[in-house]
């Protein structure tokens, strides 16, 4: 035990809504090492770290830090014990200087006066000690992202952190900044600090970490010495499949092209990657990839929430550039947003209002400017029945429903009315198994009846199971196109997702089905 | 017309502008402290009104100026405390809480006044004590400048001291640093162990204390009695002044001075035969103009900032 600085044993964390985020998870970190904590989104990494940092209280399990059992009640007590956390979203006050941010909450000075000179001196001292290159007098708001991250690390060090948790530190960094961060991590290690490095980038884990613990679906998959395993093996540990939901799926019969996407940017950068693909009627195109590689940008562009400034998007031959969301919807688009509560529904409005929020302006629902309440009530009852929405009554605010039922309301609205193109972005995220199965089935039914479907999902089971063809995104843009999703193994998919493999432009070009006129 | 110009470019005008700046300045500084902590204190008007009344009552019944002042001060802080309790603890909307306080003050002060003095508009039946005026030794002998700067009420000088004190407090003290941190990013402040709510309580209390002096200046300096609704919207003008001051104590002082001048202008215009109702609009029109100007300027600067940011991101 003596060479372990931290051991978390049999941690179980159940959220109040019944979601089990960690189930009997254990993590042991040796003193002075860089330990990778890895796994897919939603695998329970963040929850585990929140438990360690005192932001969540576990239902079961013990935490030992430096040989003593600890019960961090909040982040402040965790900091006092010597645990520091560098959040993915920085906790910095932008208008203050680097030094002020570092000492905030433990400011030097007597009689209520803030001794700025002493703050600069202390900040300079700690910057010097760890050989960071950063000016303590600079305002944080003027710093680049990589430097802001350094300030976060310095903040933790100033508070005496012996164990530093870095939450996906490289997600926001450029390759050069990442290299710099790794140099800093080595320096911290030389000074005797221990680091937990949360990441799912295999190359980085290989480069910087000694041991790795992999979580999947809230459980520990295993711990390994990084030098003993290959990237492929780690990838398999991370994305290995659980139980599959069986869906009856007749073979696809693709017809004419519904959606044409050409050179659509996947990020805000002018030199960033773009995507080109087609979706035909009666086809589900799945988009797989680690989140944050352009999925949101793609969905927002298609849905009209982000102006198409470069590239081209055509729905049934019509360019959507400059069209309003309503006009795009009138072309036959329906959109299940990844952010259910912000874009998917109006939480305080009732079920009926939500079901008709996108169509209420249509002539058929009103009569001389007054709504045809009876018709709406009848349609609502039908939809509630058809989509098995569990609710007390149709005038119940959507907020009162469970996540799965809220999503069913969204789906009922979007799927009724014979959409030509369905944009389903994380349609089953965070909802229960029953609703998930129902929504997947509906998607397949609609496509069999001739709808084109773009399915964006972080759930690999889902993309592999539901899609007909498959597009894979990684940080460099589109890394692969598979015309037949059922022929893809999860190992292979994982390697494309994590950037270990890359198809040629010609192979990816298969996603474009130019109709030969 | 020359009459107007002569009255504006006179020593009296500048003197009265300084005098009329005082109540707005106190309240604007109060607004500044609260605003920097991320809570907007709409209740300044009500705080001033209550303090104006309790200052008069306290001094009249005790016969001591100090007791009167303490009454006004405690009242102001107490009302700020009520606002803080409802908005910070009970999570009520701070704007609505402030508006409610102002409404309570409008009716409440008249009610208290009537219960005590039997008069619904003024407290002349009580003999309130008044803050003294000061002649500043050497300065008073300087021609022109002496007439402008010397001979003001004690509170006018105190308000100028308060500008420096608030500046020092916000920029140079530990609590000030924490107020700024909390106001800008309460998550960040909370994550390093700062008690966000406690800091906001403190800022609101200080805000109430500052505004209370503005109220007392009205009833125990400018006038010698409390009169119904004597703040006449100065609490709101102070909010505008603070916004124009762009978050700094010195900026707030100059913005308040603009409103002091507008009010002095309205007073001197009354002497030249313009309709009084029209003339009384001046300070409020100045407020509206000031806010429009401020919004326009800010919009432009924001735009440039955004452009700059985009360019920066683009080059990465």
Task: Kindly describe this structure.
The complex is a heterodimer of chains A (517) and B (316). Chain A has 517 residues and is of the alpha/beta class. Helix content of chain A is 32%, strand content 24%. Chain A has helices at residues 45-52, 75-81, 98-103, 116-129, 145-158, 175-190, 202-208, 231-239, 295-303, 325-330, 340-344, 351-355, 373-386, 403-415, 433-448, 460-466, 490-497, 505-508; strands at 4-14, 20-30, 34-38, 60-65, 68-70, 83-86, 163-167, 194-198, 211-216, 219-225, 257-265, 274-280, 283-289, 312-315, 318-319, 333-336, 366-367, 370-371, 421-425, 452-456, 469-474, 477-482. In chain A, the strands form 5 sheets. A 6-stranded mixed β-sheet of chain A has the order 6-7-8-3-9-10, with helices on both faces. A 6-stranded mixed β-sheet of chain A has the order 16-19-20-13-21-22, sandwiched between helices. The longest helix of chain A has 16 residues, at 175-190. Chain B has 316 residues and is an all-alpha fold. Chain B has a single domain (2-311), classed as Orthogonal Bundle (ABC transporter involved in vitamin B12 uptake, BtuC). Chain B contains 14 helices and 2 strands; from the N terminus they run H-H-H-H-H-E-H-E-H-H-H-H-H-H-H-H. Chain B has helices at residues 2-8, 11-36, 44-62, 65-89, 94-117, 145-149, 154-172, 174-184, 186-191, 196-222, 234-244, 249-270, 276-280, 282-315; strands at residues 133-134, 152-153. In chain B, helix 7 (154-172) crosses helix 8 (174-184). Chain B starts with a helix and ends with a helix. Mean pLDDT of chain B is 88; it is low at 304-316.
């Amino acid at each position: 035990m003596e060479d372990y600085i931290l051991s978390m044993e049999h941690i179980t964390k159940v959220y109040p809504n019944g979601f089990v985020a960690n189930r009997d998870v254990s993590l042991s970190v040796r003193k002075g090492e860089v330990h990778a904590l890895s796994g897919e989104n939603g695998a329970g990494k963040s929850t585990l770290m929140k438990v360690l940092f005192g932001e969540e209280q576990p239902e079961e399990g013990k935490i030992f830090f430096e040989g003593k059992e600890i019960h961090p009640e909040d982040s402040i007590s965790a900091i006092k014990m010597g645990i520091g956390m560098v959040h993915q979203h920085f906790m910095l006050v932008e208008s203050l200087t680097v030094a002020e941010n570092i000492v905030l909450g433990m400011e030097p000075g007597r009689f209520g006066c803030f001794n700025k000179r002493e703050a600069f001196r202390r900040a300079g001292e700690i910057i010097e000690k760890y050989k960071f290159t950063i000016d303590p007098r600079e305002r944080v708001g003027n710093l680049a992202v990589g430097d802001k991250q350094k300030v976060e690390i310095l903040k933790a060090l100033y508070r005496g952190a012996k164990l530093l948790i870095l939450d996906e530190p490289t997600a926001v960094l450029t390759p050069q900044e990442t290299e710099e961060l790794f140099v800093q991590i080595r320096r911290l290690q030389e000074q005797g600090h221990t680091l937990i490095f949360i990441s799912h980038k295999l190359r980085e884990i290989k480069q910087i970490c000694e041991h790795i613990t992999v979580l999947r679906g809230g459980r520990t998959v295993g711990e390994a010495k990084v030098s003993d395993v290959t990237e492929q093996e780690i990838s398999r540990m991370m994305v290995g499949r659980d139980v599959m939901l069986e869906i009856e799926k007749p073979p696809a019969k693709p017809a004419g092209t519904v959606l044409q996407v050409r050179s659509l940017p996947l990020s805000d950068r002018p030199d960033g990657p773009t995507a080109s693909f087609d979706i035909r009627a009666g086809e589900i195109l799945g988009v797989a990839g680690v989140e944050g590689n352009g999925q949101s940008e793609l969905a927002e562009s298609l849905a009209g929430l982000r102006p198409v400034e470069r590239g081209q998007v055509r729905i049934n031959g019509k360019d959507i550039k400059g069209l309003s969301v309503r006009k795009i919807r009138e072309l036959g688009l329906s959109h299940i947003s990844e952010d259910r509560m912000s874009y998917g529904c109006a939480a305080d409005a009732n079920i009926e209002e939500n079901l008709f929020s996108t169509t209420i302006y249509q002539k058929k629902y009103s009569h001389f400017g007054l709504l045809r309440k009876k018709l709406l009530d009848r349609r609502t009852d039908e939809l509630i029945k058809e989509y098995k929405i569990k609710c007390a009554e149709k005038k119940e605010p959507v907020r009162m429903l469970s996540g799965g039922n809220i999503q069913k309301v969204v789906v009922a609205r979007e799927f009724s009315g014979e959409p030509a193109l369905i944009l389903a972005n994380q349609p089953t995220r965070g909802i229960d198994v029953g609703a998930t199965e129902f929504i997947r089935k509906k998607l397949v039914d609609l496509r069999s009846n001739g709808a084109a479907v773009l399915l964006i999902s972080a759930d690999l089971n889902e993309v592999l199971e539901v899609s007909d063809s498959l597009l894979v995104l990684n940080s460099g843009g589109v890394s692969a196109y598979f015309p037949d999703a059922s022929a893809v193994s999860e190992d292979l998919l994982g390697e494309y997702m994590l950037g270990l493999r890359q198809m040629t432009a010609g192979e990816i070009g298969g996603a474009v089905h130019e109709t030969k006129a | 017309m020359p009459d107007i110009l002569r009255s504006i470019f006179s020593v009296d005008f500048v003197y009265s502008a300084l005098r009329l700046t005082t109540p707005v300045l106190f309240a604007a500084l109060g607004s500044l402290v609260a605003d920097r902590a991320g809570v907007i204190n709409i209740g300044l008007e009500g705080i001033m009104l209550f303090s104006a009344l309790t200052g008069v009552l306290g001094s009249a019944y005790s016969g001591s100026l100090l007791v009167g002042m303490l009454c006004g001060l405690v009242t102001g802080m107490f009302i700020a405390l009520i606002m803080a309790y409802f908005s910070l603890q009970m999570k009520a909307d701070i704007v609505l809480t402030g508006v409610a306080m102002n409404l309570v003050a409008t009716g409440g002060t008249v009610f208290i006044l009537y219960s005590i003095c039997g008069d619904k508009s003024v407290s002349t039946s009580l003999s309130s004590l008044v803050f003294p005026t000061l002649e500043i030794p050497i300065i008073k002998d300087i021609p022109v400048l002496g007439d402008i700067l010397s001979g003001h009420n004690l509170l006018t000088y105190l308000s100028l001291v308060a500008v420096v004190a608030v500046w020092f407090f916000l920029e140079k003290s530990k609590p000030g640093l924490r107020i700024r941190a909390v106001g800008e990013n309460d998550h960040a402040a909370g994550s390093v162990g700062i008690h966000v709510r406690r800091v906001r309580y403190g800022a609101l209390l200080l805000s109430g204390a500052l505004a209370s002096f503005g109220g007392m200046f009205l009833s125990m300096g400018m006038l010698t009695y409390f009169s119904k609704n004597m703040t006449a919207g100065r609490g709101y003008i102070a909010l505008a002044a603070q916004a124009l001051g762009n978050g700094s104590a010195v900026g707030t002082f100059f913005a308040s001075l603009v409103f002091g001048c507008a009010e002095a202008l309205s007073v001197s215009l009354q002497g030249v035969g313009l309709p009084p109702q029209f003339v009384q609009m001046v300070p409020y029109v100045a407020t509206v103009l000031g806010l429009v100007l401020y919004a326009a300027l800010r919009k432009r600067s924001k735009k440039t900032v955004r452009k700059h940011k985009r360019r920066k991101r683009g080059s990465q």
